[in-house]
Design goal:
Helix 9 packs antiparallel against helix 12. The chain is globular, with a radius of gyration of 21 Å. 55% of the residues lie in helices and 6% in strands. It folds into 2 domains: 211 residues, Rossmann fold; 91 residues, Tyrosyl-Transfer RNA Synthetase, CATH 1.10.240.10. A 3-stranded parallel β-sheet has the order 1-2-3, with helices on both faces. Bound molecules: adenosine-5'-tetraphosphate. The site of adenosine-5'-tetraphosphate has 20 residues, from helix 1.
């Protein structure tokens, strides 16, 4: 039996944070032993919001190095703009998606609001509206069975399925596979500075904890995490405390520590300072080996870049095959020059 296909993507818009890692990237690593996996660093997506040209190129490579450092195998990694067939399929799939579905997307609404924050005169790009269709192309082009993502992406994945269904109906055959989301046990990490919003880079520096921050910064960020304003009654856990428990469970090698602290919480004896200390130290224990590994990769950047160019070229072959089939199916010309 051929192995099931896994595909997921991540935007090179800055540092990898705990939300990305516990919500999706940890699964990227674990799934590699069971499935045929492909993971894209999606730079076409990163240009849908205002951005800095030099930073984008830096961020693209930095994200590649970070993913390698946490255990993603280089042969499974590719850079989206090195596989331009994603954009070609994206165009075709645009014609199988209603505009109204795109204007209704939560992320479009949130991000288009943030574009105009800060008083800078700018505009909402058509790319921002359209990026869920490109995302559908990212997934469908590899006929992925499973897509490891955080909960914030569930609406986009549903749209990918809808687009696939509409396409299949039009061509009169089950051509595209219906992709399914794979969630980790912690698919929704909140900002420690404001637990009512998700941990995210675009919300600003205090709203995310980078995997590659120095230990003193991690301690400081966890120490200043919002817990609750009232007293702990052992029953109604506030979003901030719940988030710290989620992070601890995801980071901690032993469930014993987690269980003991949770018992303290239930008994009303938990001191938040103690919880924060344990969370910070467990995080640091988890992250230090990643940080060491990244230093090794950075010491031979050239080699790492060559490996990713090679893997992108191999992965591209599969994307080209799909494009040829799709063009045949919908009546476009297929000429090999
Ligand atoms: N807070 C989160 N909890 C769980 N999963 C999360 N993901 C992102 N934030 C959380 C998951 O990480 C993967 C990569 O997502 P992305 O490319 O959208 O990452 P991002 O743009 O870097 O995420 P940010 O920081 O949240 O960016 P903005 O602020 O621009 O939206 C996805 O699988 C996502 O679900």
């Amino acid at each position: 039996m051929p192995l099931k296909q896994v595909l997921s993507c991540i935007q090179p818009t800055g540092e990898v944070h705990l939300g990305n890692y516990f919500g999706a990237v940890k699964n990227y690593v674990d799934l590699q032993s069971k499935y045929e996996c492909k993971y894209g660093v999606v730079d076409y997506h990163a240009i849908t919001m205002p951005y800095d040209i030099k930073k984008l190129r830096y961020n693209t490579w930095d994200l590649i190095f970070s993913l390698m450092a946490v255990g993603v195998q280089p042969e499974n990694l590719f850079v989206q703009s090195l596989v331009p067939e994603h954009a070609e399929l994206g165009w075709i799939l645009n014609c199988f998606c209603a505009v109204g579905r795109l204007t209704n997307m939560t992320q479009y609404k949130d991000k288009s609001l943030s574009v105009n924050q800060g008083g800078k005169e700018t505009y909402i790009s058509a790319g921002l509206l359209d990026y869920p269709v490109l995302q559908a192309a990212d997934i469908l082009i590899y006929k992925a069975d499973f897509v490891p993502v955080g909960k914030d992406q569930s609406q986009h994945l549903e749209l990918s399925r809808e687009i696939a269904q509409r396409f299949n109906h039009f061509v009169g055959q089950t051509y595209f596979v219906m992709p399914e989301a794979l969630y980790t046990e912690s698919p929704n990490i909140r900002s420690t500075a404001d637990p009512l919003r998700k941990m995210s880079k675009s919300a600003g520096e205090k709203h995310y904890i980078s995997l590659f921050s120095e230990p003193p910064r991690i301690r400081k960020q966890i120490k200043s995490a919002v817990t609750d304003v009232g007293t702990n009654d052992g029953e109604h856990m506030s979003p901030g405390v719940a988030n710290l428990f989620v992070i601890l469970k995801a980071a901690s090698a032993t469930s014993e520590i987690y269980k003991n602290l949770l018992d303290d919480y239930k008994n009303g004896t938990l001191r938040y300072g103690d919880l924060k200390h344990v969370v910070a130290e467990n995080l640091i224990d988890l992250l230090l080996p990643f940080q060491e590994k990244k230093k090794e990769i950075l010491a031979d950047k050239k080699r790492a870049k060559e490996r990713i160019k090679a893997s992108s070229s191999i992965i591209r072959k599969k994307a080209q095959e799909t494009i040829r089939e799709v063009k045949d199916l919908i009546g476009l010309l297929n000429v090999r020059f």
